Amino acid sequence: MRENLFGKTLEELKAVSHSLGLPSFTGNQLAEWLYKKEVSSFAEMTNLSKKVRALLDEKYDTGIRPPVDVQESVDGTKKYLFPAIEGKYIETAYIPDGKRSTVCVSSQVGCKMGCLFCMTGKQGFQGNLNSGEILNQYRSIPQWRTITNIVYMGMGEPLDNLAEVLKSLEVLTSDWGFALSPRRVTVSTIGITPAMLEFLNRSDAHLAVSLHTPFDEERSKLMPIQQVYPLKEVLKEIRSWDFGRQRRVSFEYILFKDFNDSAAHVNELSRILHGIRCRINLIRFHPIPDTPLESPDEETINSFKEKLMAKGITTTIRASRGQDIWAACGLLSTKKLADK
């Protein structure tokens, strides 16, 4: 199979040019076509000679692929399905919200983390996406020119695929790439501490940490990673990091009825997050099969937010979007596999 060029860095594209006996500036031309313009084939790269285009087409593929399916919600949210390895699928969500539009990309096929509340984890781990496959989810949806924000919160644990995630971030934020401000990009993690520190060192994108409860025993029930990288160690590293005034750390907190929505949880969150300039994003739980977890009612969710705000913690409730189109991450791809 021909190697894909989409997702390669500028230096890698120059190396490709060199390997074909072409001048170094051909790498710059390739980057311009792949990341700045609306092309999907070498034939469209008209400032390259026909001989060069034929040579590239013989050895390489652009790697830009359209989605194979899309579902649209009544609220305008769209969930795209892309083919992945060995007949599997990955999901990408497009979320319009006034002048802001966000794309939520996947970083892995399945996931090995096994979180109790996550449908992707129930698929098991199938493999990592490379940089091109991650970026293709952004570039290949019809609305890509209008996207203002990108979040790495789709299928998989981004920092379990650190090398390819960092490469995709380089392409996204470099002037020769998509030139998106890193302040428009957020990468989530469940708290893989060594990878988190490397991410903080090598990228300027925002960090979002899946927290979901401040109590160790409860977190272990929800997230097995707690046994390997305890929350207190994750918070210790975050507390020591200088995020500056522009870079943001946030904590994702899915509310579960009668599990993590009490006053005791508010008090403990206030204690463990003291001194960290951050925000908490409260998330309604989207039901998935074979789990005992439920979402609390709206009164409980709003009350929880107000109590956190009273403690001085900036808190938002994330709007539930796309509930009529298998919105919870992993549901659509699981359904597609079941239908095959």
Please state the CA-atom Rg, rounded to the nearest Å: 21 Å
Can you give the helix content as a percent range? 25-40%
Distance between the termini: 25 Å
> Class of the largest domain, according to the CATH hierarchy?
Alpha Beta
Explained architecture:
The protein is an alpha/beta fold. The protein folds into two domains: 3-61, DNA polymerase, domain 1, CATH 1.10.150.530; 69-339, Aldolase class I (TIM Barrel). 34% of the residues lie in helices and 20% in strands. It contains twelve helices and 14 strands. The chain has a ten-stranded mixed beta sheet, with helices on both faces. Strands 1-2 form a two-stranded parallel ribbon. A two-stranded antiparallel sheet has the order 7-8. β4 and β5 (89-97) form a beta hairpin. The chain starts with a strand and ends with a helix. The mean pLDDT is 93.
Per-chain topology:
Blueprint: E1 3-4, H1 10-19, H2 25-36, H3 50-59, E2 60-61, E3 69-72, E4 78-83, E5 89-97, E6 100-104, E7 108-110, H4 119-123, E8 125-128, H5 131-139, E9 149-152, H6 162-173, E10 185-189, H7 193-202, E11 206-210, H8 216-222, H9 231-240, E12 249-255, H10 263-272, E13 278-284, H11 298-310, E14 314-317, H12 331-339
Parallel strand pairs: 1-2, 6-9, 9-10, 10-11, 11-12, 12-13, 13-14
Antiparallel strand pairs: 3-4, 4-5, 5-6, 7-8
Helix pairs in contact: 1-2, 5-6
